[in-house]
């Protein structure tokens, strides 16, 4: 068996080597074209070791400054990557030429990756701690799967045919990780759906006026009152009949997508908020004074109706997202056909990202928190995502509730001394 695996591994390496050499031969035969500025590619591997594995937005901004260009180009094994470091370029390519740049990357790991607030919103599921099985499974799936999304995070992103290599094959590390993520993803979808069913009484029989027997899905909690959620609303809309297995599968996948899209970004933004409040006590104090002045003697927590009366807290919220956006590169756009931009050639299949660092940090590349920039300003539509309203309401409520009830300070050691802040942001795609 070991001998068979060794032969199989040798065969796979021979195939990969042949493909690399074939791509190199094709590259040498191609007429010379001018790509945007970027690191000098090395023979065969290109810029494999220049592609950032973490803090990508910041490092691409440093490349932009180094090469004095707002558009940066890298390549690895024939895969081209273009990063736009200026808003005007992003508008020109991703908006005005959207027909060419609307392709979405279909890296094999992405198909397997599609905390409490998203779960409650989608399932009415109450996750009370980080030890909750759904939270544990989701967190682990993000930790394992996140690094695979990098252009160099998996050989499958460079050689898509490797997706057909079985997980048991020697060296198939990415396949084994993908299989583990797939199992964790199933758990994230299964547990809250089963919990939802357990809390509901499913069927009562009613008869129509024309004496035909029909079934009505009656959903309510054991206590008698339904828990509002995405799944509940869907099944309630299907109350004239029992939802089919296929419909149930679809709503479970939709609910997981909502959770997957919201959980990590919410955690990231919340952690950044606590860090920035400790690092900028004067900002925290001013925001708390505004809240106290607005609340007065009521001694209550702020609610959504108070949002218009708290402009500085609103500015803190906006500055938080500017200073450290959860996903500084956004979603990757895939170029569906060759394109010429200015004096540069961009080949079909190029991965195109918009690095928000320059746009959000202004021209001065400032790393200082400055809530006053946002006083009285309107949101820019280019900063928004389709979940903007839920995200905005959730983050604003977290910020205003914490500021109203707590004073955030540096942690202290056993001797009462302040522990210095670690100002290095972790980054596995979501920072």
From TrEMBL:
Pathways involved: Secondary metabolite biosynthesis
Keyword terms of this UniProt record: Heme, Iron, Membrane, Metal-binding, Monooxygenase, Oxidoreductase, Transmembrane, Transmembrane helix
Transmembrane region(s): 6-26
InterPro entries: Cyt_P450, Cyt_P450_E_grp-I, Cyt_P450_sf, Cytochrome_P450_fung
Superkingdom of this protein's organism: Eukaryota
Entry cofactors: heme
One example GO MF annotation: heme binding
Keyword Transmembrane helix assigned: yes
Family: Belongs to the cytochrome P450 family.
Protein name: Cytochrome P450
């Amino acid at each position: 068996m070991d001998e068979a695996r060794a032969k199989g591994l040798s065969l796979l390496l021979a195939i990969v080597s042949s493909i690399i050499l074939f791509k190199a031969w094709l590259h040498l035969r191609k007429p010379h074209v001018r790509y945007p500025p970027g690191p000098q590619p090395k023979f065969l591997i290109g810029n494999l070791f220049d592609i950032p594995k973490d803090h990508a937005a910041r490092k691409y901004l440093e490349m932009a400054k180094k090469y004095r260009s707002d558009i940066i180009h890298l390549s690895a094994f024939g895969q081209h990557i273009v990063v736009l470091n200026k808003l005007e370029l992003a508008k020109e390519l991703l908006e005005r030429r959207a027909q060419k740049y609307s392709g979405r990357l279909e890296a094999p790991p992405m198909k397997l990756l599609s905390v409490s607030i998203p779960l409650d919103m989608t399932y009415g599921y109450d996750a009370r701690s980080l030890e909750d099985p759904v939270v544990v499974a989701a967190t682990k799936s993000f930790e394992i799967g996140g690094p695979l999304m990098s252009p160099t995070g998996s050989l499958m992103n460079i050689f898509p045919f490797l997706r057909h290599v079985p997980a048991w094959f020697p060296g198939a590390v990415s396949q084994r990780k993908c299989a583990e993520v797939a199992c964790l993803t199933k758990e994230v979808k299964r547990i809250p759906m089963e919990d939802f069913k357990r809390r509901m009484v499913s069927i009562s029989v009613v008869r129509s006026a024309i004496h035909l027997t029909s079934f009505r899905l009656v959903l309510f909690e054991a206590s008698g009152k339904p828990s509002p959620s995405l799944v509940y609303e869907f099944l309630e809309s299907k109350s004239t009949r029992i939802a089919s297995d296929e419909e149930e599968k679809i709503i479970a996948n939709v609910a997981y997508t909502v959770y997957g899209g919201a959980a990590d970004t919410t955690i990231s933004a919340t952690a950044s908020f606590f860090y920035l409040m400790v690092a900028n006590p004067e900002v925290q104090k001013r925001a708390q004074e505004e809240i106290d002045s607005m609340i007065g003697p009521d001694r209550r927590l702020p609610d959504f109706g108070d949002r218009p009366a708290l402009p500085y807290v609103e500015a803190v919220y906006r500055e938080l997202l500017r200073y450290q956006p959860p996903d500084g590169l956004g979603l990757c756009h895939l170029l569906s056909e060759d394109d010429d931009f200015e004096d540069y050639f961009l080949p079909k299949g190029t991965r195109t990202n918009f690095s928000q660092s320059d746009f959000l940090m202004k021209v001065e590349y400032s790393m200082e928190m400055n809530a006053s920039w946002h006083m009285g300003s309107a949101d820019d539509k280019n900063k928004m995502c389709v979940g903007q309203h839920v995200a905005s309401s959730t983050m604003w409520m977290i910020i205003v509730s914490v500021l109203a009830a707590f004073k955030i300070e540096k942690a202290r050691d056993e001797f009462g001394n302040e522990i210095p802040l670690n100002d290095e942001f972790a980054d596995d795609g979501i920072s």
